[in-house]
Amino acid sequence: MTPSNASLLRRLGAMVYDGLLVLAVLFMATLPFIAVRGGEPVEPANLDYQLAMLAVIYAFFVFFWTRGGQTLGMRSWRMRLETYDGKTPSFATASVRFFMAIVSLLPFGLGFFWQLWDVDKLTWHDRASRTRLVHYPKH
């Protein structure tokens, strides 16, 4: 069976898995901020903290996407990110995808739901980064 572009439900499933993993990583990344403050909590509006957390999320996704094209959530749902020609994305391509995925989320997730109307079942960030999320079914 040939691979096909991943469905929206499959994407959302992987996002839940990855969201839990990212949350755990963000908890760990918060510890140095709390330690520097002598155990006091970090205000959510702290710009340094927000930028550090964004950098952690960016590093998580770009690292996995450029190392085999799969996050742990994507692997669980048998999906892989690849360029239109079937290759693993480069650092630049993965970076474009990451920031465009944020744009896709901003208008109530419209960039993700766009896949429901797109002739190739691609999202805004798929198109912008010239990548696709492929589902590899069980043999």
Give an overview of the whole structure.
There is one protein chain. The chain has 139 residues and is mainly α. Helix content is 57%, strand content 9%. The protein contains 6 helices and 3 strands. The protein has helices spanning 8-36, 47-66, 72-76, 91-105, 110-113, 124-129; strands at residues 4-5, 79-83, 131-135. A 3-stranded antiparallel β-sheet has the order 1-3-2. α1 (8-36) crosses α2. The longest helix has 29 residues, at 8-36. The radius of gyration is 16 Å and the shape is elongated. The model has no long low-confidence stretch (mean pLDDT 95).
Notable traits:
single chain; 139 residues; mainly alpha; 3-stranded antiparallel β-sheet; 6 helices
What is the topology, as strand order, of the major beta sheet?
Answer: 1-3-2
Q: Could you say which structural class the secondary elements and strand pairing correspond to?
A: mainly alpha
- The mean pLDDT is 95
Helix coverage percent: 55-70%
Order of helical and strand elements: EHHHEHHHE
Strand content: 5-15%
Uncertain spans, ≥5 residues at pLDDT below 50?
none
Tell me the overall shape.
elongated
- How many helices does DSSP assign? 6
Work out the number of β strands.
Answer: 3
Distance between termini? 8 Å
Oligomer: single chain
Largest sheet: 3 strands, antiparallel
CA-based gyration radius? 16 Å
Short description:
57% of the residues lie in helices and 9% in strands. By secondary structure, it is mostly helical.
